Automatic annotation (TrEMBL):
Biased composition annotated in UniProt, kind: Polar residues: 153-163, 316-345
GO terms for MF: DNA binding
Pfam families: HTH_25, RodZ_C
Domain Cytoskeleton protein RodZ-like C-terminal: 214-287
Keywords: Membrane, Transmembrane, Transmembrane helix
Chain intervals for the UniProt region annotation (Disordered): 151-197, 292-345
InterPro entries: Bact_Cytoskel_RodZ, Cro/C1-type_HTH, Lambda_DNA-bd_dom_sf, RodZ-like_C
Compositionally biased tracts (Low complexity): 170-187, 293-315
SUPFAM superfamilies listed in its UniProt record: lambda repressor-like DNA-binding domains
Organism of this sequence: Limosilactobacillus reuteri MM4-1A
Protein name: Cytoskeleton protein RodZ-like C-terminal domain-containing protein
Transmembrane segments: 121-144
Gene3D superfamilies: lambda repressor-like DNA-binding domains
């Protein structure tokens, strides 16, 4: 084959590679990015300026990589144009190969040495890690225990303080309530001029409105007057409880009871023992003087009798226990009064 034919065949390699690249639509920049071959070497391959490549070894390697990237068979292309390409088994190729082998051997030796060192120190490293983990666990446990103990002490202290505070508050409230109830309780002092049918009490002036509670256990007629004003005038049936509001400006309270033995009176939640625990079963006129409005027993009796006589003219239900104006002592004509001479139950 002549020299011109060799040159023409040689130039076909560059054209073939360029044509395949263009058919793929790759630019030299794209190909450089894909093959990691510098652009100037790619241009030298297409122009078949193989002298510009680093050496004969790289000529074949770059051409093969170029061909495979653009979709050609690199080995087939190298075999077809083997005569026109530089031979790789030159002294330069041997030097590169020897250098590569030596480098890889050194790398393997270095890696092997590093692995051996790691293997030698591995037990020590593992033991150290275990010790660190154990110490960390002990430290965390101690912190958690101290925190829990502190919280428990604080809670116990809070509970103790709270309990003591509640006890003190309850005791103070109880004392205050007892003191208040004692101070607000109405103290009745019985006058010495008591008789079988009437009784008079004196008490301090009321500081606030209070309530008179009437609790009959049998049918009974009741009349309540405050400052000569009627507050109640009616017959109460068996267990018919009722209450009357007593104003704080009351100076004289007169209560007429038709059935004393079967009636219970409470003034401000304090019971009035007007029968002296059953000793005076016929007591039916109860007078309470508040403040300085105190009268003699005769005046109180006359006032109670007059109020009883004034109310006798009003209509009363049959069989009701009521006072009688015919009797100077104003004794009620009831079955209860007729049994005065019988023993007290």
């Amino acid at each position: 084959m002549s020299e011109n034919e060799n040159d023409q065949k040689r130039l076909e390699i560059g054209k073939i590679l360029r044509k395949a690249r263009e058919e793929k639509g790759y630019t030299l920049d794209d190909l450089q990015q894909m093959t990691k071959i510098q652009k100037r070497y790619l241009i030298a391959i297409e122009d078949e300026n193989f002298d510009e490549l680093p050496g004969d070894f790289y000529v074949r390697a770059f051409i093969k990589q170029y061909a495979n990237t653009v979709g050609l068979d690199g080995n087939e292309l190298l075999q077809k144009y083997d005569d026109q390409l530089p031979q790789t088994k030159t002294e330069e190729y041997s030097d590169h190969l020897a250098q590569a082998v030596e480098t890889r051997a050194n790398q393997r030796k270095t890696v092997s040495g590093s692995v051996d060192k790691v293997r030698n120190y591995m037990p020590t490293i593992i033991i150290a890690c275990v010790i660190v983990l154990v110490l960390a666990a002990i430290w965390i446990t101690a912190i958690a225990r101290n925190h829990r103990d502190s919280s428990t002490r604080i809670d116990n202290s809070s509970v103790s303080v709270s309990g003591e505070s509640r006890k003190k508050a309850a005791t103070s409230a109880k004392k205050a309530s007892t003191k208040q109830s004692k101070s607000t309780a109405i103290k009745l002092q019985e006058a010495p001029n008591r008789n079988d049918t009437s009784v008079t009490y004196t008490a301090s002036q009321l500081t606030k409105d209070t309530t008179l509670q009437i609790e009959p256990s049998d049918r009974s007629w009741m009349q309540v007057r405050a400052n000569n004003n009627d507050l109640l005038n009616k017959t109460l049936n068996n267990n018919e409880k009722t209450s009357v509001k007593i104003s704080r400006d009351t100076t004289s309270l007169v209560i007429t009871v038709g059935n004393a033995r079967a009636t219970k009176l409470k003034l401000g939640n304090q019971e009035i023992y007007f029968t002296n625990n059953g000793r005076y079963q016929n007591t039916r006129n109860v007078t309470i003087n508040f403040g300085n409005a105190q009268t003699s027993s005769s005046s109180a009796s006359q006032s109670a009798n007059s109020s009883s006589q004034a109310s006798s003219s009003s209509a009363r239900p049959n069989n009701a226990t009521q006072p009688s104006a015919a009797n100077n002592n104003s004794r009620p004509q009831t079955s209860a009064s007729q049994q005065n001479n019988q023993p007290t139950r």
